[in-house]
Amino acid sequence: MITVASATKRYGRTAVVDDVALELGDVGVTAIIGANGAGKSTLLSLIGRLLPLDSGRIEIDGLDVGATKGDVLARLVAVLRQENHLTARLTVRDLVGFGRFPHGRGRIDAAGRAAIEEAIAYLDLEPLAERFLDELSGGQRQRAFIAMALAQDTRYLLLDEPLNSLDLRHAVEIMRLLRRLAAERGTRVVVVLHDLNFAAAHADRIIAMRDGRVIADGPPASVMRSEVLEAVYDLPIDVREIDGARVGLYFR
Amino acid sequence: MALLAVASTFVGVADVSPSALLAQGSDGEAARLLVASRIPRTVSLVLAGASLAIVGLIMQMLVRNRFVEPSTTGTAESAALGLLVVTLLAPGMPLIGKMGVAAVFALAGTGLFLLILRRIPVRQIVLVPLVGIMLGGVIGAVTTFIAYRYDLLQTLGTWMTGDFSGILRGRYELLWIAFVLTVLAWVAADRFTVAGLGRDVATNLGLHHGRVLAGGLAIVAVITATVVVTAGVIPFLGLVVPNVVSMVIGDDVRRGIPWVAVLGAGFVVACDLVGRLIRFPYEIPLGIVVGVVGAALFLWLLLRKGSRAH
């Protein structure tokens, strides 16, 4: 379980994450939604110890993220930011291989090699495995980074807007993949999503944030309601039910 | 590489050819020259070339910029300043002590460079080495001024221009420190690659980014200082060699280090040979030959990569 207790992060005087208390990792896929600047990405970075907390406490399976050794946490939780600029020229297989770094400090055993190949296959990257990352499209690179996080083989997987720069087909495939991970490996996925309909279609639980606070939290059916979504996005959103699934219409 | 090294051993004013060696025996003039001058020179060229090229590779991973190396980040100039200061204040200090002071200065100079980079987040990849070259210019100007006041300009010149003609047995052994650190860098190669993926990815993979940065910069500073103390600055070497290797086999440091080392050593030995042959029996200092060839290669890299670097 990931336990967030009165977590606060400030930039200057504004609290980007404001006294948030949450339990995460109870279900397979948890989606965090909200407008720009709502604090979604910051919260994810705090949990993944990419940013230090100003106050509060975050524990993953009882381990304080601020005090636990880096490699111990790295075998428990993988976190991927949305922007991954790379100046190093690595092949896809090299990059995915570095997902095994927490397990062997650079030495890769048979199990590690199997995990690398499996991650590459999971993301459909076999034809690109020997290509250099700077020769790939943005979406392909994004998939390579997700494969690296997969090879890390952690119980918790935190992804910040992984659908950015993916076309529709690959976006759907990534969401299906996250579902598969949850079902087949028992991975607990926490994913920040821009598109609320992707959240509604694939998540078991949706957390909606605004101004650094959680303002709605529950199964898709409870969050995907017009009045809730309007409060989240400041935009009238018409929610319809199509074949048993709730869809928010906000395009016009 | 091996051929170059052998050639380097047998080229010089005095006749040290295999036939002369055989004719004069093991305590002839040729053999003494070989042991006292030629072999030390070749060994030190190989050590300096390999370790400086690897220093460039490490810096490029840590700073995450293709165009940094000791002579484009103020590191080499800082080492020379340190050497000047210690020469003025404690002229009797043994060479290893002077090297230590130069290393501390090099580390401080590189740290200053990183601080400036953090303050002005440069988006343009080519701006990073420009900032470093400007910083190096400022430090160099201060150093020159001090040297001028104390009539040490000529000494400073020998540090700033790599020259291996003065290398004799007993005056190059410090370079073995560079060799040890190079091996250390090879052992830690994966950490440098992971650090090169950026702070967030490195943290995610359980790597203490700050520690790797500090350790890497320490290696960079000490190697730079040893080379400056024994032979002088060899510009552009750490820039050209890793970039060429990167183009061919990529940036995995573990895979790249042996290639960078061999190519760096070969490049330096070749340039030294050119410098010795071009107006035989006189010599052109190595730093100048490498500077000319390296600058041309640097320009070519900039023009080739500048457009698609992101």
TrEMBL record, chain A:
<dbReference type="GO" id="GO:0005886">
    <property type="term" value="C:plasma membrane"/>
</dbReference>
<dbReference type="InterPro" id="IPR017871">
    <property type="entry name" value="ABC_transporter-like_CS"/>
</dbReference>
<dbReference type="Pfam" id="PF00005">
    <property type="entry name" value="ABC_tran"/>
</dbReference>
<dbReference type="GO" id="GO:0005524">
    <property type="term" value="F:ATP binding"/>
</dbReference>
<keyword id="KW-0547">Nucleotide-binding</keyword>
<keyword id="KW-1003">Cell membrane</keyword>
<keyword id="KW-0408">Iron</keyword>
<keyword id="KW-0813">Transport</keyword>
<feature type="domain" description="ABC transporter">
    <location>
        <begin position="2"/>
        <end position="236"/>
    </location>
</feature>
<dbReference type="InterPro" id="IPR003593">
    <property type="entry name" value="AAA+_ATPase"/>
</dbReference>
<keyword id="KW-0410">Iron transport</keyword>
<dbReference type="InterPro" id="IPR027417">
    <property type="entry name" value="P-loop_NTPase"/>
</dbReference>
<dbReference type="GO" id="GO:0006826">
    <property type="term" value="P:iron ion transport"/>
</dbReference>
<keyword id="KW-0406">Ion transport</keyword>
<dbReference type="InterPro" id="IPR051535">
    <property type="entry name" value="Siderophore_ABC-ATPase"/>
</dbReference>
<protein>
    <submittedName>
        <fullName>ATP-binding cassette domain-containing protein</fullName>
    </submittedName>
</protein>
<dbReference type="InterPro" id="IPR003439">
    <property type="entry name" value="ABC_transporter-like_ATP-bd"/>
</dbReference>
<keyword id="KW-0472">Membrane</keyword>
<keyword id="KW-0067">ATP-binding</keyword>
<dbReference type="GO" id="GO:0016887">
    <property type="term" value="F:ATP hydrolysis activity"/>
</dbReference>
